[in-house]
């Protein structure tokens, strides 16, 4: 008798792949053993400063789920990483592109460009529609570029040229009957 494997969370659903650094706050995020994560950035930049903006932009799309594509997951786990988001975003998180089963091959995973990491997860989850927000732009697969918005390293999703593009892509992919 064949073994039945449950589909991963998010299979057939609308997925937003979400990086943190350079998306929800300035990209220069460092880690200190006593202080934890902190930004080394000009005055006025704080961790997760754009998270409320993302929650507001996702409000019209209640079925969109979030898969974390941030390197934070390797340090804090999916749950610990998600807890740093506002509740409205936390409730949407269903997983991450990195998971503990990858630990034995961590070096191999880390050496892959972010676009390849996301694409691997898209292949595994098979979402109905998906969009990735990330400031890492090198080596994204050509076939995935329509589903990707490059955010600004400093202003993240709040950049005046990036914000309307995100809104357009959200509507394109996640409005009722959007494409995948």
Provide a quick synopsis of the model.
Helix content is 29%, strand content 17%. The protein has helices spanning 51-58, 72-82, 87-90, 106-110, 114-125, 162-174, and strands at 14-18, 29-32, 36-39, 65-68, 93-96, 129-134, 148-150. It is an alpha/beta fold.
Secondary structure layout:
Elements: E1 14-18, E2 29-32, E3 36-39, H1 51-58, E4 65-68, H2 72-82, H3 87-90, E5 93-96, H4 106-110, H5 114-125, E6 129-134, E7 148-150, H6 162-174
What features would you highlight for this structure?
17% strand, 180 residues, two-stranded antiparallel ribbon, five-stranded parallel beta sheet, 6 helices, 29% helix, Rossmann fold, globular, alpha/beta
Question: Can you tell me about this structure?
Answer:
It is a single chain. This protein is an alpha/beta fold and 180 residues long. The protein has one domain (14-174): Rossmann fold. The protein contains six helices and seven strands; from the N terminus they run E-E-E-H-E-H-H-E-H-H-E-E-H. The chain has helices at residues 51-58, 72-82, 87-90, 106-110, 114-125, 162-174; strands at 14-18, 29-32, 36-39, 65-68, 93-96, 129-134, 148-150. The strands form two sheets. Strands 5-4-1-6-7 form a five-stranded parallel sheet, with helices on both faces. A two-stranded antiparallel ribbon has the order 2-3. Strand 2 (29-32) and strand 3 form a beta hairpin. The termini are far apart. The model has no long low-confidence stretch (mean pLDDT 89).
């Amino acid at each position: 008798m064949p073994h039945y494997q449950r589909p991963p969370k998010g299979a057939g659903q609308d997925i937003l792949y979400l990086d943190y650094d350079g998306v929800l706050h300035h990209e220069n995020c460092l880690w200190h053993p006593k202080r934890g994560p902190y930004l080394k950035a000009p005055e006025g930049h704080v961790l997760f400063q754009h998270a409320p903006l993302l929650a507001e932009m996702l409000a019209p799309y209640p079925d969109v789920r979030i898969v974390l594509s941030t390197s934070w997951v390797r340090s804090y786990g999916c749950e610990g990483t998600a807890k740093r988001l506002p509740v409205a975003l936390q409730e949407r998180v269903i997983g991450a592109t990195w998971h503990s089963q990858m630990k034995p091959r961590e070096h191999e995973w880390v050496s892959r460009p972010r676009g390849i990491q996301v694409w691997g997860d898209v292949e595994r989850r098979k979402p109905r529609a998906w969009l990735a927000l990330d400031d890492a732009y090198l080596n994204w697969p050509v076939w995935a570029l329509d589903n990707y918005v490059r955010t600004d390293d400093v202003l993240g999703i709040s950049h005046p040229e990036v914000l309307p593009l995100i809104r357009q892509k959200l509507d394109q992919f996640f409005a009722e009957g959007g494409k995948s």
